[in-house]
Write a structure and sequence with these properties.
three-stranded antiparallel beta sheet, alpha+beta, 185 residues, 54% helix, 2 domains
Amino acid sequence: MTEERDIVEEQPAAESTAAGAEPVPDPEVALAEDAAPEAQPVDEPDWKDLALRKAAELENVRKQTAQRVQKASRDGMRRIVSELLPALDDFERALAHAEAEEGDAEHHLTAGIRLVQQKMLDALRRAGIEQFSPKGEPFDPHQHEAVAQQPAADGAAPGTVLEVVQNGYRLGEDVLRPARVVVAG
């Protein structure tokens, strides 16, 4: 039995392939298969497309960040203005009271207060915040707050602002505080 085993082991490789073992691939056939388009792996990414997508993604992140910064800036300005506006209103009331009592609008104290008030308004203007007084304009509920209604006088059309009780303030298109007004009825 050992002799038979030795004889099988001594048979050439070609005979063992015929007996059912796997054939050895021909090198020329293997090269031809590698060159064929079907032989390329399907999973390889399109690098140009991937780079364009990542660039677009980065641009979107930049835009979103810029919008967040701008919104945070506007929100900060709103907070500061909401704290400063009552002081400006107090200046206006103090000046109106002092000028009405003294009978002299150019009194030194009122001139000094008016100067401080103007500096505060200029600082707000430089920050993009503007004061508005809609006297004579049509009433707009998005920009005005009606505190009273009076019969139309002097030919004013109904719905027109007759008097401004308190000025309004805007930051660009956003109304920070609506103007408090008396409307013609």
